[in-house]
Design a protein that fits this description.
By secondary structure, the chain is of the alpha+beta class. About 35% of the residues lie in helices and about 25% in strands. The strands form four sheets. The protein has a three-stranded antiparallel beta sheet. It has a three-stranded antiparallel beta sheet with strand order 8-9-10, with no helix packed on it. Strands 1-2 form a two-stranded antiparallel sheet. A hairpin with a 2-residue loop joins strand 3 and strand 4. This is Retrovirus-related Pol polyprotein.
Length: about 220
């Protein structure tokens, strides 16, 4: 389906290329509100069939039935409506539906999108890694053990542990707590803790009426 642009509005779609300056006479998808306009037109065309035998999303139409005879009847309704509205072309054997190739063979990946993915260069930034995983994630249902295979790539989105530790140490020093001088007349308390390969300790004393522990030093 092609939607005509009113002659008085065509200048609003003007674009420049090496061959000159041009304007659209038919609505392209790249314009603001073009998608919603197209959806509105499709909904208007099939308005009395939407709750009966067809679902419409942009330029994708899905005819649903519960028997073969009903399928022929519903297809006849839909195709007749398409003819009445001067449908430009019709793919009867197979077609792209929501980014997937649907045919009598089943549901396949869109070869055009796969060519784009396979031609992507090696990512060199977090943004490019995220974009690459986003492209693959669209077809993850077709990839066995997707999570396992993609895990090394996903880890590239994580912060470098050494850099993260470097900034954490600087942050801790910037906001370092105030330590208390030891009072040799009071008992000391040594609190220790271990975690895997690390050992930490806090030396403190309980001071004042509330007997709160005042830190004298940290050790690790």
């Amino acid at each position: 389906m092609q939607i005509h642009i009113a002659p008085e509005d065509q200048h609003k779609t003007t674009f420049t290329c090496p061959f000159g300056t041009f304007a659209y006479t038919r609505m392209p998808f790249g314009l603001c509100n073009a998608s919603s306009t197209f959806q509105h037109c499709m909904t208007s065309i099939f308005s009395n069939l939407l709750q009966d035998c067809i679902k419409v999303f942009m330029d994708n139409c899905m005819v649903y039935v519960d028997s073969f005879d009903a399928c022929l009847e519903n297809l006849s309704k839909v195709l007749t409506r398409c003819i009445d509205t001067n449908l430009v072309s019709l793919h009867g054997v197979e077609g792209i539906v929501l980014g997937h190739l649907v045919s009598d063979r089943g549901i396949e990946v869109d070869k055009l999108k796969i060519d784009i993915i396979t031609s992507l260069p090696n990512p060199v930034s977090v943004r490019e890694v995220r974009s690459f995983l986003g492209h693959l994630g669209f077809y993850r249902r077709f990839i066995k053990n997707f999570i396992k295979i993609a895990l090394p790539v996903s880890k590239l989105l994580q912060k470098n542990p050494y850099i993260e530790a470097f900034y954490e140490l600087k942050n801790r020093l910037t906001f370092a707590p105030i330590l208390q001088a030891p009072n040799w007349e009071l008992p000391f308390e040594l609190m220790c803790d271990t975690y895997n390969s690390a050992l930490g300790a806090v030396l403190g004393q309980r001071v004042g009426v509330d007997k709160l522990v005042h830190v004298i030093a940290y050790a690790s």
